[in-house]
Amino acid sequence: MLTYKYKAISKKGAEIEGFIEAFSEYEAINKIKENHDIVTSISEVKMGKGNAVAGKINEKALAILCSQLSVIVGAGLPILRAVEMIAAQTENKKLKTIMEGVSKDVASGVSLAKSFQTKGPNLPITFIETIRSGEESGTLEHSFRRLHDYFDKTAKMKGKVKNAMVYPAFTMIVAVFVIIIIMVKAVPVFTNSFAELGVDLPLPTKMLIGLSNFFVHYWFALVALIALVLVIYKLYEKKEDNRLKLEHFKLKIPIFGKLAMLKQASQFAATMSTLIGAGLPVVEAVSITGKVMDNKYIGSQVKGTVSMLEEGKRLGDSLHNRTELPQLLVEMTAVGEETGSLESTLDTIGEFYDGEIDTQTSRMVTLLEPIIICVLAVVVLFILVSVYAPMFSLYGGI
């Protein structure tokens, strides 16, 4: 994604400055218009190596930041002092640059939420809006605690999934590397020997030699093909409709699709619970949640429920009619609405889906391991048969 700096005039006539992420300037303008009437200027921010705020700040760093702010504010220190202390102590260069800018803004009378919005172009909207709500309601300490729990949970969940996939990914990479080495170094030796002996080669051996020759002499064609596929993919996903189709497709992939949907359910529950707990109205919380969903297809469906909510429909009914989120999540949301305990219900169902993600990840790894072993066994068997078949043929003719 690209980062754009913009100026706009809000619906109340106030001048607004900020940063926004989008795939194109056209998409960025459309996003800005969701909250403001008129975009007066917009320009891409070039994120070079020397730019300290290039790239996103990860969830773990945000969780630590929110924990520190919660403790300092809870101790009774002014928010300006809290920001200055963190800016002076943090070793995260990106965060340090942001906090130094925020401290200057806050000292000049700018609100904390607006300061983070303008100085941290890649900070999550969940972070900004929860702080804004906390400032307006005078519950900043509570908002920071909620944000810490939210980002800490998100970081741990992503870490678990990544750690679970390390072994299968490492095994596949090593296996591909070894197979390429065999094709490039070992097989040509056997090919020369067979040529000298004048042996009539069986089909598997001819196939192996053909693959070997391809890797030795035409490897650049494979690299070019991979690069071409990546370029076509990037060009294809630039269009909003195409990107949504790709995101929808990811949810339909066997094994991985189910895990992806569980992650979306968990993210929806955790984000909604955090925003509602911070005091945001349900409609606004849903709108923000739709924007931050990792899967943009599900995010677009969630944002599509806003119009129904504004018409007076219930959240549970809106989710049922407009989204593909799991039925259990939708039903539990409806129960939370009816009982007046939406925040706690979403917390509970979010924890349930976190457990389901753990279970599904373990199952996926357990299933992938034998599949990888079987695939490697077939490849090794093919190579062995291809190499030894001419030898058996030669011995049989003696």
From TrEMBL:
Transmembrane recorded as keyword: yes
The UniProt record lists the keyword Transmembrane: yes
Domain Type II secretion system protein GspF: 66-188, 268-390
Membrane topology (UniProt): Multi-pass membrane protein
Membrane-spanning ranges: 166-195, 215-236, 367-389
Keyword terms, alphabetized: Cell inner membrane, Cell membrane, Membrane, Transmembrane, Transmembrane helix
A GO cellular component annotation in the UniProt record: plasma membrane
Domain of life, source organism: Bacteria
Intracellular or extracellular location(s): Cell inner membrane
Annotated InterPro entries: GspF/PilC, T2SS_GspF_dom, T2SS_GspF_sf
Alphabetized Pfam families for the sequence: T2SSF (PF00482)
UniProt family annotation: Belongs to the GSP F family.
Protein name per its UniProtKB record: Type II secretion system protein F
Lineage: Bacteria, Bacillati, Bacillota, Clostridia, Lachnospirales
